[in-house]
Write a structure and sequence with these properties.
- This protein is an all-alpha fold.
- 94% of the residues lie in helices and 0% in strands.
- It has 2 helices and no strands.
- The termini are far apart.
């Protein structure tokens, strides 16, 4: 092998290493990206928790409004019943 062939072979390997990083470079890049992945995972967890709490608040509000509606409906029925009784008494006299 001549020095010219050796130089071309070395240049080819260097170019290939630039295109295809070795396992050490991948591991290093992976280690540098771990905090970002952890932060992304943490933010996803917080988002899921916030969404769950939002749904729970909506459900609690819906239940509260349903109970209030039922209570007001019963109150209106009692008032209507009292009015009918009062009307019947007035007509009977």
């Amino acid at each position: 092998m001549t020095s010219d062939e050796t130089a071309r072979s070395t240049a080819a390997r260097t170019a290939q290493a630039a295109v295809w990083p070795g396992p050490h470079q991948n591991r290093t890049r992976h280690m540098h990206l771990m905090p970002e992945a952890l932060a992304r995972s943490h933010m996803a967890d917080l988002t899921r928790e916030a969404e769950s709490q939002r749904i729970a608040r909506q459900l609690a509000l819906a239940q509260r409004l349903r109970r209030r509606s039922q209570r007001l409906h019963r109150r209106a029925e009692r008032a209507s019943h009292r009015a009918r009784r009062a009307m019947a008494r007035a007509l009977m006299q």
